[in-house]
Amino acid sequence: MFLKNKIFVVILSFQKLLIISFLWNLVLKKIIFYYILYLCIWTFFIKWFLWDFTSLRFITTKTWEKIRPTINPKTGKRPPSTFLIWLSGIFSIYIALFGIASQRYESRVDVIENRANSIFAQLSIKQIRTETLSRVASLQNMSCPHKPIILKPVSVFNSLFLEDAIYQDIVDLMKDTLVIWKKTLSGVDLTNANLRGANLQNANLENSILKNANLESAIINGAKFENACLKNVKGLPEWLENGMDLDNNYMYTQNRLIEAIRNGLVNLKMASLLDANLAGLNLKNINFQNSTLKRVSFNAAKLSIVNFQKANLEEVNFKEAVLSSVNFQKSKFIKCNFYCVKFIDTNFEGADLEKAIMYGNDLKGLNLKNTKLKGTELALAELEDADLENANLENANLENANLKNANLKNANLKNANLKNANLENANLENTNLNNVNLDNANLKQNAVEQGQQGRGDGVNP
Q1: Is 323:308 a contact under the CB 8 Å cutoff?
Q2: What gap in Å lies between CA 125 and CA 132, rounded to an integer?
Q3: Confidence (pLDDT) at 10
Q4: Nearest residue to 137 via CA among 102, 157, 166
Q5: 443 and which of 291, 326, 419, 449 could share a cystine (Cβ 3.0–4.6 Å)?
């Protein structure tokens, strides 16, 4: 009984296999048939379209007849070839078309360049300079036929039959003009202006109209945008977008930007803040990289994990602020106030702190490598374990400062005041101590105490 059941199962499986094989062959044959039919139809269509419909066969046949005419049955002789005459006729037509295209192009270019020269002449007149600069954007958007090139027949066709394009040379020239006059762009109408990649650093764009302008890749750090219309501007950074008043013609105001900062805006890369009041705020994870801050107040503010890398800070007030994990790498400080600031893991490497006020600050263990501290007020500063390698401390006031275990390798202390300073175990390897005031300074266990003054000729003990 078991054997019979097994034989029955085998027979049933074989039948299924035969049915599947039959169906597969049937489907496969149909697929191959329709594929071959598709190729035939497609090949026929390509041949008909390229060879007959486009008149390529006619052109080829007639061309060959000009090169090698058929034998005359009456005379039995082959007529002379007329190919060169026929070709010269075609070439003459091409030259004529090129002349027409070139004339159209040159005429339009002359109009555009004459208008540009008119703008250049009027820019010297101060009374009409704003109106003159307002014409730049419209000139940038003047269209011109494509430039025909005699050795490129496609360019001649494009010049005659395609839609006119923007004349890129005048776009770049007008862009450079706006860059030259960037300090006088206040109130100028720059609607549809192409400022892509332009250097607008410290430009004055207050009260200007930048509707539909292109600012992609433009350098705008330090630029003034107060009350500027920024509707539909391309390449607009996040800080400008957040400073726009959508209900007031997309007008940018700094007060609106400050409100956005208070509400949590963190991306302020390349931002411009002038006379802004951020006193007492708790600012965390904010990016001020490459930003320009002038007369900004961070008085008693708490800054945590804030990035000021390569920022320009002029007369910024950090009085009594708490700076925790703040990055000031390669930043430039001009007359900034750090009075009674609390520094926690702050990085000043490569920063320019010339003439900054850091009186009595706790800078213990901070990274001050390669910093410029020329003329900086550091009296009573706590600089124990600070890294001041390659720092420039020329004319700096370090009276009563604590520099215990500080790294001053290759530092420049020329004309610095180190009266009553603590230099115990400080690393003074190759330090410039020329004309340094070391009255009552603690020089225990360092190179100066051992008589190895490095570059310290003229040390004032």
Answers
A1: no
A2: 9
A3: 52
A4: 166
A5: 449
Q: What is the CA radius of gyration of the chain?
A: 39
Cα–Cα dist 418/429, whole Å: 17
The contacts found for 198-201 with CB under 8 angstroms, 24 or more apart, are none
pLDDT for the residue 115: 94
Rounded to whole angstroms, how far apart are CA atoms 434 and 416?
9
Q: Please give the backbone phi and psi of residue 357, each rounded to the nearest 5 degrees, phi first.
A: -100, 105
Digit-coded pLDDT (tens) for 323-353? 999 999 999 998 888 888 999 999 999 999 8
342 three-state secondary structure? strand
Cα 146 to chain centroid distance, Å, stands at: 29
Measured on CA atoms in the order 251, 252, 255, 260, is the torsion positive or negative? positive
pLDDT of 223 above 60: yes
pTM equals 0.73
The residues near 97 (Cβ < 8 Å, ≥ 6 apart) are 156, 160
Q: Could you give the CA distance from residue 380 to residue 358 in angstroms, rounded to a whole number?
A: 9
Distance CA(189)–CA(129), nearest Å, equals 12
Spatial separation of the C-alpha atoms in residues 382 and 234, rounded to whole Å:
48
- Whether residue 449 has pLDDT greater than 60: no
- For residue 452, give the 3-state DSSP assignment: coil
Q: CA quadruple 249, 252, 255, 258: dihedral positive or negative?
A: positive
- C-alpha separations of 442 from 196, 364, 366, 390, 421 in Å: 58, 18, 21, 22, 6
- Superfamily assignment of 181-265 in CATH? E3 ubiquitin-protein ligase SopA (2.160.20.80)
Contact 367, 348 (CB under 8 A): yes
Q: What tokens does 158 get? A: 């494009």
Q: What is the pLDDT of residue 450?
A: 40
Amino acid at 10: V
- Tokens 């390529």 identify what position? 56
Contact 230, 252 (CB under 8 A): yes
- Please, are residues 286 and 266 in contact by the beta-carbon 8 Å criterion? yes
Cα distance between the two ends of the chain: 119
Which neighbouring-strand residues pair with 245? 251
